Predict the structure.
Amino acid sequence: MAAATVTLARRIARSGVLFPRSSPQVWGQASRQPPGLLSTQHRAFSNKKILVELDTSSGVATMKFKSPPVNSLSLDFLTEFCISLEKLENDRACRGLIITSTIPRVFSSGLDIMEMCGKSTEHYAEFWRAVQEMWLRLYGSNMVTVAAINGSSPAGGCLIALSCDYRIMVENPKYVIGLNEAQLGIVAPFWFKDTFVNAVGHRVAERSLQLGLLHSVPEAHQIGLVDEVVPEEKLQDKAVAVVAQWLALPDHARQLTKSMMRKAVLDHMLAHREEDIQNFVNFISKDSIQKSLSMYMEMLKKKKS
Amino acid sequence: MAAATVTLARRIARSGVLFPRSSPQVWGQASRQPPGLLSTQHRAFSNKKILVELDTSSGVATMKFKSPPVNSLSLDFLTEFCISLEKLENDRACRGLIITSTIPRVFSSGLDIMEMCGKSTEHYAEFWRAVQEMWLRLYGSNMVTVAAINGSSPAGGCLIALSCDYRIMVENPKYVIGLNEAQLGIVAPFWFKDTFVNAVGHRVAERSLQLGLLHSVPEAHQIGLVDEVVPEEKLQDKAVAVVAQWLALPDHARQLTKSMMRKAVLDHMLAHREEDIQNFVNFISKDSIQKSLSMYMEMLKKKKS
Amino acid sequence: MAAATVTLARRIARSGVLFPRSSPQVWGQASRQPPGLLSTQHRAFSNKKILVELDTSSGVATMKFKSPPVNSLSLDFLTEFCISLEKLENDRACRGLIITSTIPRVFSSGLDIMEMCGKSTEHYAEFWRAVQEMWLRLYGSNMVTVAAINGSSPAGGCLIALSCDYRIMVENPKYVIGLNEAQLGIVAPFWFKDTFVNAVGHRVAERSLQLGLLHSVPEAHQIGLVDEVVPEEKLQDKAVAVVAQWLALPDHARQLTKSMMRKAVLDHMLAHREEDIQNFVNFISKDSIQKSLSMYMEMLKKKKS
């Protein structure tokens, strides 16, 4: 993961984030002060695309995606996401994380197609490494992670939800969730697939991935893609209650158990990480793929206007 | 797979099929002509045991098993099956395949016990290689494959259904489906088991295989062994609709996704193919097994008369 | 498994059990006499903690845990259990096994915490090897094994049930079952996890293990942790009927099928057995773990008084 760290560090420097890895983590340090010294029980931390709020009394942080129009996972978004995850992971005051969206009707639209279209192979490689890094940090997080899915969540958005410990989705006939890569003429990488299979089993995954299905909320619930469905107004309370339930367990035992359950899939990806980047770069650089992504983007633009 | 190809080529020559691999594929070539040059939208291709019809307008072929009394998988049947699969696979006009039966009340009764009883070890080996070849081609097919199961489907018949992308079964209280090898005193090979586990999960497979269960249609539906149940008169339309749904996806993305889902199980078999043949030959040659198969055949004969 | 055998033999000698492995197995020999020579159809065999009854007419043995107060799996209990399993396994008159409890409201409370608290590392190692041995024998048994769960069954008690071929539980709102190790601040070993995943699938296992859930009977049924739920008075008859159903299959085919289904998980443990013992010893010897187990024992004592 050395290369990834270098890349992230470079991006941190580039994006002007305040807390690079090598310098003192001001925010992290604060959390290690005795509770009595803290002026408030809440600390907030906002970058451009994600708002992070930490309730130090409960030890639960909330990440709010706020990147219009659809919280797409651009390289900038992913970089912010990884940095925020790393900061929370290293912050002893933080034990749980709720991920949600401030954008109406969308949790996250998935990978930003702009990053995969008409760019250099170096850019594709850097982008893909950031996607991997996000998943590695979230799927392997020591924190209790709950996805509070308050909008549609296709492709990479679905992956974020799948990488959490628990998924709560708002009941709304317009919301959908799934790994719909095949619909765009591309293929979900093997570790998206592994994460999906771990949640819904082999048979459901086989059909859903081949058809690139976007499941309605009741269907997602029925196949086990989400764990619970609630009305919008109860989402936040439910997410807080679920995190509290999981935090009632001794951290160490829970973390070791989580690692035991997810290690095989994480290790498999790490063992093939560079190969996976190369595969992505080769695939996305193909004329046919570039053409079909361009057409898809045109279609999206027309839809808007 | 060289040995398998040689065996198949030899059998092709023996069975007098018109299109051996090394000579021009007349039927296949036709399909590469511009659509306008084709005199009809339908082409049919019939061997002794399987009728193949291709609708070139939709790109969907239908294979109809027509080998009385019960579509048992003899060496001749398997050879025809493999040849037909290979021809369709190589035919660009064909993207989807529906498999069904013309024999009342039976989809396929599974491996032909006659091929496993009182024959030479060479014959057992050739037979087993043909069973493997059939599964390798069907489970790994690039086509969209739908089993339209219009009758009972034990053992090898169930394997054919399991190897398709989607299974639709006719609702009929007399029809059953399952891997019932244990009932006959034999053991489903590991790749039958892997295919079964991929469809229904480990626990259901463990019980069903140990008890050699033949499931009723509602039960098969409930455990996920079949995906959908329809009245007989709606089977054909439903199968056509399902293939159309799957063909709406870009071929390349769908095929790569399918390969990703099935590769581990296919590779596992290929890595142990010769060993698996040897195991089968050793097992089936045992006096105790020969005796129990003979008794089973006697029982079947008495049932008939 | 040489070391394990030595350990078991030593314990057999120590516990004064009548039939050590190296001397003639009196009980086993009897079963190899022609049926006509047997004076009765029932033979019973009682150690201190487990009563074993064999119905030679049906070939079904029943093991009744009778170790007050809660059938906890002490080293003595495990040793008796392994010896009884070995004897039944080697007895041709015995083909099926029902495991149940004579203690009201408890099937088995799991590993005896006394064995893990304030003892030597040698003791921890011997204890853990006995836990492994029990699972290896039960999960890999050639007999048809049915758990007749007539009480709560946490942790190691749940493992015993999971290692059988079929689980029937008494419907009682007070009974619970699950791998609740995480609640005690410890971690279920990987082969507990593998056994659990084989029964309920990855997703259910991930949540249940991380939360250390003890499931109610309906919930256990719904997630597939138990196969069937019956009123207390029907438990025995149901267990007998289930064993009979499984014994109707040819032994050889059923046993090979069972082995095929469970081999991967058994082999995985065997390949890491010594490492697993070392991990357990290191983990359990930690001050923090010793402290939390002591506190848990104190709590249990207070509960009683």
